[in-house]
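Progress report, Aim 2. The chain analyzed during this reporting quarter is listed below.
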Amino acid sequence: MADSNVSDEMKQCYENLIVIDCGANLTNKKYSRDLDSVVQRAQDAGVQKIMVPGTSVKSSKEALRLSRLYPGVIYSTAGIHPHDSKSIIEEPKSWFEFETIAQSLECVAIGPCGLDYQRDFSEPDVQKEIFEKQICLAAKLNKPLLIHERSAQADVLDILERFVELFFSFSVGHKFKLKLPFRFPTVQQIVIRSFMGTTEEAIKYLERGYYLGFTGYLCKDKSDTGVRKLLEEKILPLDRLLVETDSPFMYPNTRASKLPQHVKTGITDRSLLFLHRYCTFQRNEPCSLPAIVEMIAAFMNNTPDEVALATAFNALKLFGLSQ
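Predicted structure tokens for the chain:
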């Protein structure tokens, strides 16, 4: 059970924001001993729903299991992370198990998948092959696609655009009743998870109608052309924004020296209570999400309620989550 003191202390604070965490890695072994408490704390903090991503066949299966243990609160995704791409090549039969997991009703998206050229856990050609298989699967199942991209935007866009053209050809064929493998997919349902790129890179994604997921990376970004600029100059419209903690990673360090003072003061005592009491650099939790939402609001000069409502609506609509 969650810390019994939480409810008493929260009575001292005003009503919390209602937010949806679009990416918390609750299959991580750091949560193996107290997952019930972690989920309860998230709900106490106002995190109404949590999406748990699968990044391999094994973790996708575990994410699905969690979604059945916490129905209506946890939803799963099924993905083969670029780092794990080689596992499918080494064990081809595991792909069939992955497809079965992806077809489950509780699985609301395919991914994270994509390309990561910052590390070489899997060769680029292998990453591309498994990325393309997951694009096809998302299209076949008509589920949104979650993209992980690091230093690989040109290749990611090239692959996605080639598949858009291919799917368009299929849709035309379907119109004339040709025998085709699947219906024309909703290719606009693409999310760039944990975005940490430049303004220029973000614009390329936004021009194509993709969503961007923001995390506590806001506290680390010190560039003049990064995620902060997207918010301050309102380049990123609210209807294309999702929020996620990427727990246990991406701890939002609200004490960072480079974080503007107006952003620090925009974080409520309530959110700081959850953040500083339960989250650390070694283990972030979904209960930190309200603090992230409030920082985003401060950067955008919006109210936290506006950001919370918009991002929750985006998630509900995009992933078909129950209300």
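The mean pLDDT is 89. The two ends are 25 Å apart (CA to CA). These observations will guide the mutagenesis work planned for the next reporting period.
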